[in-house]
Amino acid sequence: MTTAVPTLGETAHRLTRKGQDLQVRVMEVAGGAEYGHVLVFGEAGDGCLVRVHSRCLYGEGLGSDDCDCGPELDKSLDLIWAEGSGVLVYLEQEGRGVGLIAKALGYRESQRSGADTFTSYERLGFPVDNRSYLHAAKSLQELGLARVRLLTNNPDKAAELRAAGLAVIMEPLLTPVLSARAAAYLDAKRRRRGHLIPTSDVPWAPEVQPVFKRKSRIWRFWTMRGQARRRRTLPASK
């Protein structure tokens, strides 16, 4: 028996989160449910807040303090709820795209050797980051979006969405650092992948209030500084 795929409108319902009620609609990510799902909150339109998020069972389901995945998702939803609309693209890309078993092996190697998880993946023969955001970009375009305010600290994510034809403004996420391992992971993200991670000393990420577009000199300064740091971490071309 073949079941017709419901339209976005047919999935509409109300969701209460932290005492606040908001409409949510759900659809499969472009390409099929194996890639993930899209949740549209409120009446999201061009220029809305968007979180493109890869699954992390440890951070989201188990409440691990050793990464920033759970806090980033929680903060993103706080900001979307405060604004009253936005989009979550939830991608089935556990372990930076190599799966939960590979992630567990990487954690074991890191705890055994003291290496960061990027180095551990390399030692184990895994791609450092095997995620793709093309299906996410296509999904956002299917929603009729041409411009998004992307809740992320990852410039590669923004770059891939831009390459797919979307206009992207990065909205960095300042989240609590829950453990020494989480602090080390954030440091590795800065060093190895050029993530533009704000700190309490440089609080240029949005707080839980209606978000505005930041075009101040300090925003441009820290964005340019982060991009320059990322260029310094890239291997020299041969």
Automatic annotation (TrEMBL):
Keywords: GTP-binding, Hydrolase, Metal-binding, Nucleotide-binding, Riboflavin biosynthesis, Zinc. Its cofactor is Zn(2+). This is GTP cyclohydrolase II. Residues 37-169 form the GTP cyclohydrolase II domain. The keyword Cytoplasm does not apply. Its EC number is 3.5.4.25. It is an enzyme of class 3 (hydrolase). Pfam families: GTP_cyclohydro2. NCBIfam families: PRK00393.1. It catalyses: GTP + 4 H2O = 2,5-diamino-6-hydroxy-4-(5-phosphoribosylamino)-pyrimidine + formate + 2 phosphate + 3 H(+). Pathway: Cofactor biosynthesis; riboflavin biosynthesis; 5-amino-6-(D-ribitylamino)uracil from GTP: step 1/4. It comes from the Bacteria. The keyword Hydrolase applies. Gene3D superfamilies: GTP cyclohydrolase II (3.40.50.10990). InterPro entries: GTP_cyclohydro_II, RibA, RibA-like_sf.
